[in-house]
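Task: sequence in, structure out. Protein: Aldose 1-epimerase family protein.
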Amino acid sequence: MTDDIHSLRSGSLTATIKAHGAELCSLKDGGIEFLWQAGPEWPRHAPLLFPIVGRLANDELLHQGKSYRMTQHGFARDSRFVWAERGESRCTLVLHDNEATRALYPFPFRLMAAYAIDDSGLDLTLTIANTGKETLPASIGGHPAFNWPLQSDAAKQDYALTFARAESSPVRRLDGGLLRPAVQPSPVKGAALPLSESLFTDDAIIFDRIESTSVRYAAGQGASMGHWLKMSWRGFRELGVWSKPSGAPFLCIEPWRGYASPAGFDGEFTDKPGLMHIAPGAEEELSYRIEVGSS
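Result:
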């Protein structure tokens, strides 16, 4: 145990979290690594997206006549969190607003990330508290990247995402990091999304009308062969699925509460579509769970 990282264990499952960004950086079952190990194609594992998801127009947050520079996905992923709890099967990290954050985002807040492991999976609970005197506008998202393929003897095109429910609603795509105004037909066939690199030619697939609250990622007919994982979520209203179309060996499954600014929107941040508006003294709690195994 060091000040920089902390490891959790339950049965054959282990997880490692670092203080920088409160980021999960390893999730293993019996020594099998499921999480992308931040290779040169993308130098992150599972960053937390706060106080925005995606981009703002011109990377600019406008509030009460002032402009603040806010780059893609916000600053939490590059901030050092403080350990509030460190145990064998759970840990909690906290980020408070400070001089550096207020120069980018002029709102008081407290962001808490609580990890808990059991024999079959890992839970992450995110709690955003408004510690100020005005409404707190914010978005938050997970961005975990998993190895694709999960095992070396499988091909990437063998894999599929299988949602808990059919996902027939149109999806959204990005242009220059901003949300395109037009929707696109869902690439999901019933509840199954066969995976291929070509899906990501236009960046992430954004399910902004997601029906499911869980999805299974695995290879084989019916997504039941070899190593698998299941993600489930609570409190998140959108889901992003992303990889790079150039052969990068990872797949991101991203529960979101919020999304990039729509192309053409350059108004006050508090009017941006997709935000939570948290009352003074109130909190918002969201969570996701990753279960892993082999079959």
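The first strand starts at residue 5 and ends at 10.
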